[in-house]
């Protein structure tokens, strides 16, 4: 029985999905304005490990990860580099997907982009305004935290003495600046052409809003697991809860699973300290990247991971030992002399499961693997393993690798991208703008163009939806 440490209760809890046999997971994804650093990948690897283990345990998993393609940082960057939003975010989305594949991360079922979900975000803000949980001020809309009594419970905030109606425009702020946060940011000159029309004025969505919107769109108003790094607990996840539960009146997420930081040489990773690494800085060869994957997935997600190149080297050595053993096992011949390999492998697999069930305790799970590996190496060297014993151990390694993903290549990416390419997404958005302006001729033309590209558009109460033809 799988137990997960749930940040919402600060306790390990038995995991029970809302729907028997099916699990719905949402993970905060990347902001595609630059290369992701190795710390970011710790969060994506945790989501991958969790998803793989749930599938290994016989559950069906639907996983959604957002792509933030509009926020303050992106706007600063496009203005500094004089590029279009689509151009910049397309480039770094592609880099991100390549990085995921190079780390053998199984793709999510859906990678929704924020800019393709503006109508849904406008709809969610409207619901919050209707329920009196948000207010408009100077073209922006803010969430009123004093109207949501549970605000702060998740992040364990002390909200006593906070003043009503004091707001913050920045998406990122700390616990000393607990304020009403922006759901919609009214257009300012520095936003340039990046803006959308909404009933409450021209502007763009706040960052926190997109995760509430896109998780509920693809997974329902209540779902099982939300993952992310610990630095997202406040304000991002606290705000997601307030927005979602405020709008629906239903519990948003059952289990919150967070990973700790990744430090470099015992210090916080920072550009100014010169200890900041991208994936390409630690290697381009598959062997280097799999060693990085090994290092991260065999460290417990709730402990701070201290990245060093010596640590990476040890991971590479451990992984090499496993791959070399696999090669030896393939070459084994003859009959085994002594030893009950099926029973020993069963025992090792039972131990592996027991540790994984204990809040994904991979350091112990990997120790259980090496217990059998040591035995098998010794028997092979003495010529005692035989072909059938080797087959049992190979099968065992294959089983555990379904969870750890340290040997093989990722499952093939879906042949059709789950998310619309930017050019089609912008056609969709242009059509929506034409509809809002009641320019039916133009909206029909755009619908035809989209149909020609294989996209079927469906209008809904809050905006539109699309599917591949
Ligand atoms: Zn998020």
Which helices and strands, and how do they pair?
Elements: E1 3-6, E2 11-14, E3 22-27, H1 38-56, E4 60-65, H2 72-81, H3 85-102, H4 118-130, E5 134-137, E6 140-143, E7 167-168, E8 180-186, E9 203-205, H5 207-219, E10 223-229, H6 233-248, E11 253-259, E12 262-264, E13 267-268, H7 286-297, E14 305-307, H8 309-331, H9 341-357, H10 362-381, H11 386-404, H12 422-436, H13 440-452, E15 455-460, E16 463-468
Parallel strand pairs: 3-4, 3-10, 7-8, 10-11, 12-14
Antiparallel strand pairs: 1-2, 5-6, 6-8, 8-9, 12-13, 15-16
Helix pairs in contact: 1-11, 4-6, 5-6, 7-8, 8-10, 8-11, 9-10, 9-11, 10-11, 12-13
What does this structure look like?
Strands 5, 6, 7, 8 and 9 form a five-stranded mixed beta sheet that branches. Strands 4-3-10-11 form a four-stranded parallel beta sheet. Helix 4 crosses helix 6. It starts with a strand and ends with a strand. The protein folds into three domains: 257 residues, Rossmann fold (3-Layer(aba) Sandwich), CATH 3.40.50; 126 residues, Isoleucyl-tRNA Synthetase, Domain 1 (Orthogonal Bundle), CATH 1.10.730; 47 residues, no CATH class. The longest helix has 23 residues. Helix content is 44%, strand content 16%. With 469 residues, the protein is of the alpha/beta class. Strand 5 and strand 6 form a beta hairpin. It has 13 helices and 16 strands. Zinc ion binds next to loops.
């Amino acid at each position: 029985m799988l137990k997960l440490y749930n940040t919402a209760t600060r306790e390990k809890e038995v995991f029970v999905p809302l729907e028997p046999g099916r699990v719905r997971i949402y993970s905060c994804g990347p902001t595609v304005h630059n290369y992701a650093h190795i710390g970011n990948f710790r969060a994506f690897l945790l989501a991958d490990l969790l998803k793989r283990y749930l599938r290994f345990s016989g559950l069906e998993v639907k996983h959604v990860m957002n792509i933030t393609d509009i926020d303050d940082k992106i706007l600063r960057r496009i203005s500094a580099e004089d590029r279009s939003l689509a151009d910049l975010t397309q480039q770094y989305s592609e880099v991100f997907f390549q990085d995921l594949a190079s780390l053998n991360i199984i793709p999510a079922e859906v990678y929704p982009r924020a800019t393709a979900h503006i109508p849904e975000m406008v709809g969610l803000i409207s619901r919050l305004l209707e329920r009196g949980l948000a207010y408009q001020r100077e073209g922006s809309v803010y969430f009123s935290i004093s109207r949501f009594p549970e605000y702060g419970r998740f992040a364990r905030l002390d909200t006593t003495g906070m003043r009503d109606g004091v707001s913050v425009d920045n998406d990122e702020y700390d616990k000393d600046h607990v304020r009403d946060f922006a759901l919609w940011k009214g257009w300012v000159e520095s936003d340039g052409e990046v803006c959308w029309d909404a009933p409450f004025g021209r502007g763009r969505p706040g960052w926190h809003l997109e995760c509430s919107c896109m998780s509920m769109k693809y997974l329902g108003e209540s779902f099982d697991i939300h993952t992310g790094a610990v630095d997202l607990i406040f304000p991002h996840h606290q705000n997601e809860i307030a927005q979602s539960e405020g709008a629906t009146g239903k519990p948003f997420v059952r289990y919150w699973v967070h990973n700790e930081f990744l430090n470099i040489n015992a210090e916080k990773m920072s550009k100014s300290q010169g200890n900041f690494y991208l994936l390409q800085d630690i290697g381009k060869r598959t062997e280097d990247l799999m060693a990085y994957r090994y290092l991260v997935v065999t460290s417990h997600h709730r402990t701070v991971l201290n990245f060093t190149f010596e640590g990476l080297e040890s991971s590479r050595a451990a992984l090499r030992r496993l791959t070399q053993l696999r090669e030896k096992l393939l070459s084994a011949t003859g009959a085994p002399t002594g030893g009950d390999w099926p029973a020993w492998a069963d025992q090792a697999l039972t131990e592996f499961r027991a540790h994984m069930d204990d809040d994904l305790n991979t350091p112990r799970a990997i120790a259980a693997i090496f217990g059998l590996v040591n035995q098998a190496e010794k028997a092979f060297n003495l010529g005692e393993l035989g072909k059938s014993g080797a087959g049992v151990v190979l099968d065992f390694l294959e089983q555990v690798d379904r969870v750890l993903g340290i040997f093989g290549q990722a499952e093939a990416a879906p042949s059709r991208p789950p998310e619309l390419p930017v050019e089609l997404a912008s056609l969709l958005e242009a059509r929506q703008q034409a509809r809002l302006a009641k320019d039916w001729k133009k909206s029909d033309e755009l619908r035809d163009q989209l149909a020609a590209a294989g996209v079927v558009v469906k209008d809904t109460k809050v905006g539109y939806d699309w599917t591949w033809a």
